[in-house]
Every structure is written in C-alpha cells, then in structure tokens.
Design brief:
The chain contains 14 helices and 13 strands. The chain folds into three domains: about 1-155, GTPase HflX, N-terminal domain (Rossmann fold), CATH 3.40.50; about 190-355, P-loop containing nucleotide triphosphate hydrolases (Rossmann fold); about 360-415, Alpha-Beta Plaits (2-Layer Sandwich). By secondary structure, it is an alpha/beta fold. It starts with a strand and ends with a helix. The strands form three sheets. Strands 6-7-5-8-9-10 form a six-stranded mixed β-sheet, with helices on both faces. Helix 12 packs antiparallel against helix 13 (about 400-410). It has helices spanning about 15-30, 55-65, 80-90, 100-110, 115-135, 160-190, 205-215, 255-260, 265-270, 290-300, 340-355, 370-380, 400-410, 415; strands at about 1-10, 35-45, 70-75, 95, 195-200, 230-235, 240-245, 275-280, 310-315, 330-335, 360-365, 380-385, 390-395. About 45% of the residues lie in helices and about 20% in strands.
Length: about 425
Amino acid sequence: MERAIMVSVYRKGDPRAQVERQLDELKGLISAAGGQAVGTVTQARDIPQAGLGRGALKALAERVRSDDAQLAVFDQELSPSALNLVQRELGHQVRVLDRTELILDIFARRAFTREGRVQVELAQYRYMEPRLRGGTALSRQGGGIGTRGPGETRLEMDRRLMRRRIRELDRELQAVERQRHQRRQRRARTELPLIALVGYTNVGKSTLYQVLTHREQANRDALFVTLDSTVRRMLVPEFGPVLISDTVGFVDRLPHELVAAFRSTLAEINDADVLVEVVNANPAFPVSPAEQLRVIGHTVAQLNAQTKPVVRVYSQWDAVRDTNAAANPDGVSLSALTGQGINQFLARLSRELSRLYREEEVRIPWQSARAWRIVYQDFTIVDRSDQADYSALRLRGPERAFWTLRQALEADPAASSM
C-alpha cells in the first residue's frame, strides 16, 4: 500500500472546518485508490492557485522523507507549471498527483465495461493533453496510483499521437452514445416514467436500488462502485410500473473531464421524469447532509436538469441515534437495511408521479386496431368495462400519449360514429 502525504492550499479566511472536511474526503479518495494517507501539509494563501510557498514546499519535502511517502496528493487541481515546481522539489522518486488525477485513477480501477473504459481513458487523455504540452513530469512510467490506463505510454506519447487517440475514443464513445440513445428511445415508447437515483458517492444508492427492484446490484463500502448506470423495472403502489436508474455517484468538484466523458451515462438524469436525491443521514458519514445537497445541486445544474421534480430521501436513518431527531419536512427518512420508511417513500414517489400523468375515460371500438396498439403501448389501464361494440377504459398516461390516441380515434370511422 502506497503512503501518501495530503496537501491543501486554501484561501485565507476559508473556514477551517471546510478545509478539514475536504481533507477527509481526500483521505477517502486515496484509500479508494489503494493508498494510505500518512500525513498532511496545509497552507493558507491569498492566491491558492499559486500553489505552496517556498517554505511550505520545503516542509512538504521534509514530511515526505520523514514519513517515507511515495505520493504527494494535492486537494486542488494543479497547473502544469505548479506541478513541475513541486516535482522538481520532491524528486522523481515521489509521484505528485492532484485531486483530478486521483479521481481519474479511481475511475480507471472501477471501469469494467467497454463503455466505462472508453469514457475513463478519454477523460485521462483530455486531462493529460495540456500537461503534455507543458512538458511536465506526467510523462512517467511504472505502476501505482495515478499510472493506470494510458500511463505506461506517456513517455513516448507526443501531441499528434495523443490527439489521434482522443479522436478515436471520441468516435467510439459517439457510437456507444447512439446505441444508448436508441435504448432510451425504445424505453420511451413504453411510456413508463423513468426515476433516477442521484446522490453523493457511497451514500447507499445501490443498496436502496437493490431493495426497490429486488435485483442484485454491486454495492460495498467504497467510492464510485457504480460507474455504468443500470435501469430496471419496479412497481410503485397506487401508481403502477416505472423504470428506475442507478447512476454514478457525485463528489465535490467532480472533474469537468469526467462530466464530459460520462455525458452518455449521466444522460439518464436528463431523461428522468423524477429525480430521487439520496442523502446519507448517518452521523459517521464524512460529508454532512447540507454539503451533500450542495454537491447534488451543483452537479445536476451542470447537467441542466435542475428543473426536474425531486423526491428527497435521507438514508441510513437506522444509524441516527438521536431519538429526538424530527422527521425531515423536505424528505423521507428511511433505512434500506431495516425497511423503515420505504412505504412512505413509495407513497411520496407515487404522488409526485401522479402530477406528471393524468387519467381519462375513453371508449375504444373493438375494430380500432391502431387505437388498441396505442393503449397497450403507451398507457396503464386503471379500470375497464367491456361492452358489445367497445371497451370503456380509464387510462393513465402523459398528455402526449392522450394526444396520439385522440388522433387515432378521430381518423377511425368506427370511433368517430360513437
């Protein structure tokens, strides 16, 4: 296990509690990448982008030597020049990473599908390209944190070859996106609403997804376990069947390279009719509920999905020991482990979905084949009364489906004469 020194350069006046929280998250990221945080160096500066001052840089080099560390991991994204400066001071026996490269490394570990690997590799190359132009020490070889994916060919990679590889990956990802878009179109034709679970990484979304769908889903106490979104069918009481998607977890300051590369995966959020915000209420969780909500809001806004209807759930409520803790007025408190609050959540979800869909009574002649196809394809039949020449139906569906059905009935002579 590689030993790492955490480094934070923050703006003077920033709350110390915020800095400590960010360092706690960085420690979790290092652990997820297979390393161990063994020390910390911090400095408050008027211009954090300038990096460590000369004295703090010397202190970092001494801390690296005294703790026998192989890594120096910055909580900020470093410019090529700033990274070069630190690398020269520490020597090439110590690898210098910033937060973005660390997250990219974790994604490289977690990517198992072809789509996931292409997305991660593309993000890595886009991150590396300006640093290659800067001639930095990122052109290095070997194993360990920050060297996965395309790392082994960095030394001989020139700008022309890198740009060619980026174009190849872009084309491959576009093909994957077309396939995903076609799948979404096929799902849309079922007229089933899509629910998307969103939340901070490792808050328990996959566990909740497993409980709701009664299907096994990869879940363990680790960051970014779910990279490829999965869609399953589930039944919401008092409403009917829906589709539910488990999406990649968010993290504070999610690198824009990843948002761009994972746009096809994150498109499930744009396509969703309702977002379910999963907030971890466990006091032991390193990120507070308020901070989780801030990150969710920022990331959803990046995807232009901030106007979607939202149902909020506070998960792991069984771990909240304060018996006087009031129920959350803006959400549902639940535990996927004990089942507490699941019924209340489903009832809240049913009410939200019902606002998007309406019910209407219609008469469909038996001989109107096109209208019946639309009924079975686009609607949920709430009630039905069959007569000699027609069936009286109470249908639930979106407005666009009712419009399509009206057009079919108006074009049918048998229906028009009723």
